[in-house]
Backbone:
């Protein structure tokens, strides 16, 4: 009897979708258009190039590229030959890439020579001792690193040109590629995805090919098909983009329209021109799309559905506004993290507007989700706030080469401790509030910064706000509001404080207001609150005797 759920491999997905949909368009990137069949050919071309380079099954291949068509082809080629994909944040610089290359034990690094204003090759040269002759790296700081591969117009000493690798790959037989692909075990690690770094040094989250299962189930739940078109402006080094853009296209047959970067004007132009039906994003992306749509309306009538993770108080106003400004899109909410893959909890297409905007979905098929005391791990009841903990098919294998951190992240009975705060509602929906570490303790009172953020966002001259704690001699810490004003806004810090006064408890009212032009962001579009906390500690030091 066959298995009730046949195991699948990421590297086979492109061939599978090419057999199903053939000449239907599968990928659009700038002026390039690929059918699913053409994508399969490009993936095989890349896979042969990797074999010609000497990439072995199980070796780690770091991909440090901006969104582009080659990123997609390499993603599936790496999986097809049984190697492990290690996406690298394109905002990383010398210290970051040095840490990741060493910690991940990457054997190959594939990157640009230059992209936009950034010379990636120069950064590599600052970090890695490239050979003066040949292309085999021998650097004691990176004992596993063997070759650096460059996508660019020229050849560079000590590196391998990707064009040259593809030429060499022409000599790799179809039988050799097929044999390697057939040897891949679906239970092997296929992806090491580094956390965004908003909580300190990034950790490499290991996932197997089982992530396909949860995507197929969610595609069915949300009625995704080959009639859909997904716009993917999220960075491919982030789980949200890999999952809901690249992989979802492969499991559903939906066309993926990929952009190099997120630009709200470009995104809306593409939604109109390409008749996009699926658009996802965090609240920062959705706010920028709404601002642009209000400045210059486009025809977005084809939009059908999009994932906007809601629940936190600061996201609620954005989610409610999106129902109007980005209509007819129906957003759905959810909860997930790199360690669980996307969608441990997911909303439904028939959720009420209140559930879309103020909840975080229900446990997805195959997942167990509970809210527990973060210290004792004892489960809590309905409406009781605690740590969100998860068990399920796509929960990570662990953090690469970090056994202590891995052990600390799981309970003795196998629940992943998310470090996130939430509670289950009467209707069975989870409501995610935020990170445990982001909660403030003001004079002994627990304060949710997202509640304050959500309220201040109601000020007509505020575009975005982030609340962090600053040390205080009397109260231990006090709220500080970092505010980005709308263009032409004239509000002062006292205006923001006055807006809060008599509307919330006194200990929740920001003690200080700092206006900023931009927020420090992670590559995935989240505000780096640790940077703001550090800044607040410097700006408002505790007085000493």
Residues:
């Amino acid at each position: 009897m066959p298995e009730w759920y046949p195991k699948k491999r990421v590297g086979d997905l492109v061939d599978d979708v090419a057999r199903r949909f053939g000449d239907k368009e599968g990928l659009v990137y700038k002026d390039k258009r690929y059918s699913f069949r053409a994508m399969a050919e490009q993936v095989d071309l890349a896979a042969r190039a990797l074999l010609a380079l000497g990439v072995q099954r199980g070796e780690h291949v770091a991909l440090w590229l901006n969104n582009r068509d080659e990123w997609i082809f390499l993603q599936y080629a790496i999986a097809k030959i049984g190697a492990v994909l290690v996406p690298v944040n394109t905002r990383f610089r010398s210290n970051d890439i040095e840490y990741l290359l060493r910690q991940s034990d990457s054997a190959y690094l594939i990157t640009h020579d230059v992209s936009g204003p950034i010379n990636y090759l120069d950064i590599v040269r600052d970090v890695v001792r490239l050979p003066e002759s040949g292309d085999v790296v021998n650097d004691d700081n990176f004992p596993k690193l063997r070759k650096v591969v460059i996508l660019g117009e020229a050849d560079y000493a000590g590196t391998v040109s990707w064009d040259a690798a593809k030429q060499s790959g022409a000599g790799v037989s179809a039988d050799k590629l097929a044999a390697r692909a057939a040897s891949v075990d679906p239970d092997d690690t296929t992806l090491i995805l580094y956390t965004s770094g908003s909580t300190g040094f990034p950790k490499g989250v290991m996932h197997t090919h089982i992530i396909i299962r949860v995507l197929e189930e969610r595609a069915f739940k949300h009625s995704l098909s080959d009639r859909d078109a997904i716009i993917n402006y999220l960075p491919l080094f982030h789980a949200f983009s890999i999952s809901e853009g690249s992989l979802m296209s492969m499991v559903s047959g939906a066309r993926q329209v990929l952009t190099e970067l997120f630009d709200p004007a470009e995104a809306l132009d593409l939604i109109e021109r390409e008749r996009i039906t699926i658009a996802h994003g965090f609240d920062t992306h959705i706010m920028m799309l709404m601002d642009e749509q209000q400045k210059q309306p486009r025809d977005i009538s084809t939009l059908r559905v999009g994932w906007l993770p809601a629940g936190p108080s600061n996201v609620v106003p954005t989610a409610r506004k999106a129902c109007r400004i980005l209509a007819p899109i129906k957003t759905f909410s959810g909860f997930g993290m790199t360690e669980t893959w996307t969608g441990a909890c997911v909303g439904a297409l028939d959720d009420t507007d209140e559930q879309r905007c103020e909840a975080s979905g229900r446990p997805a098929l195959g997942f167990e989700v509970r809210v527990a005391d973060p210290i004792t791990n004892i489960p809590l009841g309905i409406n009781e706030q605690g740590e969100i903990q998860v068990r399920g098919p796509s929960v990570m294998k662990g953090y690469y080469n970090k056994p202590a951190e891995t052990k600390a992240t799981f309970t003795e009975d196998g629940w992943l401790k998310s470090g996130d705060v939430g509670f289950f509602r009467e209707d069975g929906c989870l409501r995610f509030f935020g990170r445990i570490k982001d909660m403030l303790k003001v004079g002994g009172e627990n304060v949710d910064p997202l509640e304050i953020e959500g309220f201040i966002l109601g000020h007509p001259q505020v575009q975005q706000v982030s609340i962090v704690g600053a040390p205080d001699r009397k109260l231990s810490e006090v709220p500080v509001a970092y505010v980005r004003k709308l263009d032409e806004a004239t509000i002062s810090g006292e205006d923001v404080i006055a807006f809060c006064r008599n509307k919330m408890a006194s200990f929740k009212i920001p003690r200080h207001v700092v206006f900023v032009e931009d927020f420090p962001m992670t590559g995935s579009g989240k505000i780096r609150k640790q940077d703001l906390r550090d800044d607040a500690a410097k700006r408002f030091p505790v007085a000493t005797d």
The chain has 17 helices and 29 strands. The chain has a mean pLDDT of 94.
